[in-house]
Amino acid sequence: MPELSHDATLRELRTDRGVLRYHEAGDGPPVVLLHGSGPGVTGWQNFRANLPSFAAHFRCLILEFPGFGVSDPVDAPPMPAAERAVLDLLDGLGIAAADLVGNSMGGFVATRTAIAHPDRVRRLVTVGGMGTNIFSPAPGEGINLLTEFVEDPTRERLVQWLNSMVFDRGLITEELIEERWKLATAADSLASAKKMYGKGVLRAQAAAAFDVTPLWATLRKIRARTLITWGRDDRVSPLDMALIPMRTIPHAELHILPNCGHWTMIEQKDAWESAVLAFLLRKDGE
After folding, report:
1. Four-residue CA torsion sign, 262, 268, 270, 272
2. Beta strands in 128-251 (DSSP E)
3. Looking at the predicted structure, is the pLDDT value of residue 163 above 90?
């Protein structure tokens, strides 16, 4: 297999909305991996450790959403920009349909794409990234810490937020903190985070929620076979958020991983890969 380093896999796609950057590796049916939000996040950080396992079976495309410091920023809110970027990537590479694997925000983007463009999504995998709080308070602990960071971006607040993402805090190394801090405090990245998690934005979203149909109420429209994966100990998107998706998506399976926070694909890497690959490689009808 060719080298799977950051630079060896990095690609660019020019679109009418600027340059999209993505990482590509492997041959076979296309799988698009969509990253989460939060300070200093990139698609490469989210999925780089999973790339060797997936690239052995699929043409893997790790998309970098606009506004997070890698792809060109666009003049649009992060979520709609990300949804458009998925279609731009598929169209630009001549891909009629693909499997979508989305973490957190990427899960919401993948879910919205599966609802709005069912012909473009063969199978859907989410890591959190859908549903709504039923028993747990909303926003969750991790979202509140994220808001505190974007309002006052200090290194200490970044570390507090990172610790809320995992069950095992040993994963939050100085190297990871430095990597996240460097990108999280870049102007484009910080501006994007504020558009999603600033206090005023969250208040406006809460007020507007009374006038729109929530995403969780439309999950029954998903036609793609769906695998919902979740960390049992997630403090960002608590596990009870999975209940409505599990019950309402027509062809949904739920896989819960113990001793695991929000970064399921990182913290329970081997178990998560085993479950997801088995699902994606399963023949239609099985």
Report:
1. negative
2. 225-231
3. yes
Task: Name the class of domain 6-137+214-281.
Answer: alpha beta
Phi-psi region of 67 (alpha: psi -120 to 50; beta: other; left: phi over 0): left
Q: Strand 59-64 and strand 18-25: pairing?
A: antiparallel
Query: What is the rounded distance in angstroms from the CA atom of residue 39 to the CA atom of residue 162?
Result: 9
Domain definitions of the chain by residue range: 6-137+214-281
Q: From the candidates 23, 35, 255, 262, which is the catalytic residue? A: 262
Mean pLDDT over 149-158 rounds to 94
Tell me what pLDDT residue 192 has.
81
Which of 148, 243, 239, 261 has the alpha carbon at shortest distance from 202? 148
Query: How many Å is the Cα radius of gyration of the chain?
Result: 18
Token pair in block for residue 75: 């003049």
Q: What is the pLDDT of residue 172?
A: 96
pLDDT, position 194: 85
- Check if 255 is active-site: no
Distance CA 228, CA 125 (A): 6
Ramachandran bin of 259, using left for φ above 0, alpha for ψ from -120 to 50, beta for the remaining angles: left
136, 233 in Cβ contact below 8 A? no
Q: In what order do the strands lie in the sheet with 18-25?
A: 10-15, 18-25, 59-64, 30-34, 98-103, 121-127, 225-231, 252-257
Structure tokens at 31: 């799988």
Question: Do residues 77 and 26 touch, judged by C-beta distance below 8 A?
Answer: no
Lowest model confidence (mean pLDDT) among 29-38, 78-87, 122-131, 195-204: 195-204
Cβ contact 34:43 at 8 Å: yes
- Asked if the model's pLDDT at residue 52 lies above 90, the reply is yes
Instruction: Give the number of other CB atoms < 10 A from CB of residue 61.
Output: 25
